[in-house]
Specification:
The complex is a heterodimer of chains A (119) and B (510). With 119 residues, chain A is mostly helical. Chain A has helices spanning 4-23, 27-48, 70-101, 106-118. Chain B has a domain at 254-479. Chain B has helices spanning 2-20, 24-47, 69-88, 96-114, 118-136, 142-173, 178-187, 192-209, 218-224, 227-251, 255-274, 279-300, 303-334, 339-344, 351-365, 371-381, 386-403, 407-410, 420-434, 436-443, 446-452, 455-477, 489-509; strands at residues 51-55, 63-67. The chains are: A mainly alpha (119), B mainly alpha (510).
Amino acid sequence: MFGWQGVAAAVVLFGIGTLGVVLRRDLVVKLLALAVVNSSAILCLVSLRVRPAAGPPLLGAGATPVMADPLPQALVLSAIVINFAVLALALVFVMRLVEQYHTTDSHRIDRRTRDEDAE
Amino acid sequence: MTALVLPLARFLFGALTVAVGHGTRVFLVLSAVVDAVLIAGMCTVLRGGACTVTFGGWKGLGIAFSIDIISAAMAALALTLSVAVTLYTWRDRMRPSIAALLHLLLGACYALAFTKDLFNVYVLFELVTLASFLLVGADRRPRQVWASLRYLIFSSFALSVFLFGVAVVYTHGNALDLDAVAAAVARSPGASWVHVAAALLVTGVAVKAGVFLFALWLPLAHSQAPPAVSALLSGLVVKMGVVQLFRLSLAFPLGVPLTVLGILTALLGIVYALWAHDAKRMLAFHTLSQIGYLLVGFGAGSEAARFGVIDYAVAHGLFKALLFLAVGEAAAVVGSSRVERLVAERRLVPRGTRVALAVAILGIIGVPPFAGFAAKAVVESGISSVVIRIFVFVVSAGTVASFAKLWPVVFARSSVRTAPPRAAAYGLLGTAVVLFLPISRAMGPAAVWAATLRGSAYVEALAAIAVGAAAYAWSRRRGPRLPERLFRLEEGVLVVLAGFLLVYALLRGS
């Protein structure tokens, strides 16, 4: 499943993740859906530059005539770490909201904060 | 080399602040001094012409930092705002963790002003997002936490879209450096990958830049955050998105989409600001309207308009930060940020704060010779289309009309004095707003200024104020109910996708 199949899978995953963010009201599920969206971008980045039958990008002994492009792999590593940090921090904030409002329902939280504003 | 040291010094100071645990203010002052020296050094380099430094040039894939008038202007703006915020919060004894986040935010903003590498832009935007996300929610008040979480979800979603764009660019253009990308785009004009990539990248950046259809998170986050944080978000962080849109517009054919998005953004911002009852919310919507103004300037594409946009971005950063700080203090004293309460209890607002508010309002509505006037005049001299000039006039008048609501706060009899550190913060930003015209005149090309400061510019500025005052009287009498649903998280994410399709369609059509 590489190359164009990977890109197609990335686009499908992006769609699924977006639907999750839009339709699910539970904040934890919403954030997990967001993680799916983030992963889809990563899948797209690695799949677009796949070279068939490429070896690892090493010089010297064991070098193959066609090497995999190392740059997307390096980029993806940073992206994965960043997405992890984003998800972890977002979940901490959800915990704080649950402490206050005793719900993870985004519509309810939205209404409660709006009511506080009106006071 | 300064381009690299500037962000890294901030990161280092941030780490030191946390490690030492006290002496937060010493580090803030020290880092400001270091930055000032570095930026002054950079300006002397700049006199010899713009230059690009490439780090780790591996087969042409190094990370390029460009020192030019844009990055210098943005770095200077970042420094000014950070000093103002430091002074503003001087008495509050900022916690070390918060100060570290502030250093992190500034370091990332410096780097964003310099970088020309698309993936580096992605990483730095994520860094800015994380720092500002934590700063907005730092007081742990539930409303702020919710505003900040929404901001994070929007941002993270948008940056994923941006990453898709990076993947497309790298696949077809074989480069991540914007100059190389521009060359690749020039080689294949009208290719479908160019449209897809441009639409994806613009969507990602537009969410950060406060462009309508993309930045529906902005009014809530900017109005709920503590005043010092709002000032940085509206004054600086949003400008980083604008700078990136600027750099993208040099590589991709974005004239038509940016003009259309600019008009939409400005109109939405003006309409909501005109009938906003909350002063901080009104300021947040005005950020939208002014960003729209900037985009129209990019869309015009002429040399004067481009310079004017940078000029206006800096001017806006200054007076918008001043507005957020002054209104924030007034709201804290009065106990509410609703406009009626502020006007009714204006006696409580300290004198220095009211002076600062007056200077900032005169700046934003473009009274000559304050900052707003000078910058607006340059942008307008670069726009040739009559329709767009009329539109720009309407936006200026709308700005006057909505700030007329706050104007009464300026006049009050009170003997309460502003605390000295805060007065210093207002003094710094206020001086910058007042002296903006001579300073930016020294920096910019002389030909642009000669074409700009004609009698018609003064007449136009005064006419906009007159029309705006009339519009204010009219808007007082009717108050339409504007839809709030648009700003919910769920609808917002869908609207971002709709915005992507709009940009794509405009790119295909143009």
